[in-house]
Inverse folding.
C-alpha cells in the first residue's frame, strides 16, 4: 500500500489527504473501530461532539500511544463544534470538553459543524473563539463544514483567518464544482464527507428513486478496467480533483480497500465519465435551512 499524501493547509500544517471518519459509529464500538483503522494505516481520524464518540476515539489513541505504536505528532485529529455550542464562552467551553473527551492537550483541527444563517452572529462568535483557541495553541488548524460560498464570504469579511478547510457533502452525483472553484481562489482545502455517496436523504419522499452511487454502471465499468472496486475509483476521483476524503467503514477489509488508491491513476476519459454523473442532487439538508433547532442534539460538557 502506498503512503498517504498530504495537503498543505493555509496555516502551514500538513493534513493527510485521506482519513477515517467515525460518523454514525456506535460509541461502544468506536475505540475498536479506530484501533483497526490505525492498524490499517490511517493517520487522520475525524469525529465531532455531535457524534457522541469522541471518547472512543481518545481511548483508541491512548491505547496506541501507551503501547508505543503511535506518537502524538503522527496522528491528525479533527473534531467539530455543534451549532448549540456556538457563541464566545460556549465555543471555548465546547473545545475544552472535546479535548477532555479525546484525552488530548490540543486538536489538530476543529471545525464549525454548520453555518446557522438565522443566527449568524453566533456563528461568527464561535469562529472567533476558534481563532483565539488556535492562537493559544489548543488547536493547530480551524475551519468550517457545510458552508456555501455566501456563508464563507460573510465569515471572511468579519473574521481574521480564512478557514483552512471546508468539509462538505461531495460525491460524483453532487460534485460542488462552483464551491471548489471559490475554495481554490482563497486557499481553502475541500474535504468531502460522505465521499462514496450521500449517507442520508433528508426528504426521500421527494425523490423519484434514491441513487446508490456505487451501483452506477459507469463506476463498475471504470473499476473493472482499472482492476479496482467502484469505491476505490470514486475515492481516486476525489483525490485527482484535489479533494481530501474521510470515508467511514467498520469492516477492516473495506478500511484497507479504501486506503489502497494511490497505485493507479484515472484517465482523463474516466474522469469525464464520472464527472458526467453529477445531477446536483444533495442527499442531506441544505445548510441554508439549518437552524439551532434543526437537529435536536444535546452535547454534554
Amino acid at each position: 500500500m502506498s503512503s498517504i499524501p498530504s495537503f498543505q493547509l493555509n496555516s502551514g500544517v500538513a493534513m493527510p489527504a485521506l482519513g477515517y471518519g467515525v460518523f454514525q459509529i456506535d460509541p461502544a464500538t468506536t475505540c475498536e473501530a479506530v484501533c483497526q483503522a490505525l492498524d490499517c494505516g490511517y493517520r487522520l481520524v475525524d469525529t465531532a461532539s455531535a457524534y457522541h464518540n469522541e471518547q472512543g476515539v481518545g481511548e483508541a489513541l491512548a491505547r496506541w500511544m501507551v503501547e508505543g505504536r503511535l506518537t502524538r505528532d503522527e496522528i491528525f485529529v479533527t473534531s467539530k463544534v455543534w451549532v448549540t455550542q456556538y457563541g464566545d464562552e460556549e465555543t471555548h467551553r465546547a473545545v475544552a470538553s472535546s479535548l477532555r473527551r479525546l484525552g488530548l492537550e490540543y486538536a489538530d483541527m476543529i471545525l464549525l459543524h454548520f453555518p446557522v444563517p438565522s443566527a449568524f452572529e453566533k456563528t461568527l462568535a464561535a469562529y472567533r473563539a476558534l481563532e483565539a483557541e488556535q492562537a493559544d495553541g489548543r488547536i493547530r488548524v480551524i475551519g468550517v463544514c457545510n458552508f456555501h460560498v455566501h456563508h464563507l464570504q460573510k465569515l471572511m469579511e468579519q473574521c481574521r483567518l480564512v478557514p483552512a478547510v471546508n468539509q462538505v457533502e461531495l460525491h460524483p452525483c453532487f460534485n460542488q464544482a462552483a464551491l471548489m472553484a471559490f475554495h481554490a481562489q482563497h486557499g481553502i482545502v475541500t474535504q468531502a464527507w460522505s465521499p462514496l455517496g450521500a449517507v442520508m436523504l433528508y426528504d426521500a419522499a421527494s425523490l423519484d428513486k434514491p441513487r446508490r452511487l456505487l451501483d452506477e454502471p459507469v463506476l463498475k465499468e471504470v473499476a473493472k478496467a482499472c482492476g479496482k472496486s467502484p469505491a476505490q475509483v470514486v475515492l481516486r476521483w476525489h483525490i485527482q480533483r484535489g479533494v481530501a476524503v474521510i470515508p467511514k467503514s467498520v469492516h477492516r477489509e473495506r478500511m484497507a480497500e479504501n486506503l489502497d488508491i494511490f497505485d493507479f491513476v484515472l484517465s482523463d476519459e474516466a474522469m469525464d465519465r464520472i464527472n458526467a454523473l453529477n445531477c446536483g442532487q444533495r442527499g442531506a439538508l441544505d445548510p441554508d435551512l439549518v437552524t439551532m433547532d434543526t437537529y435536536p442534539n444535546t452535547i454534554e460538557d
About this structure: The longest strand covers residues 139-145. The chain has one domain: 6-289. Confidence is low (pLDDT under 50) at residues 200-207. Residues 6-289 form a domain with the TIM Barrel fold (CATH 3.20.20.100).
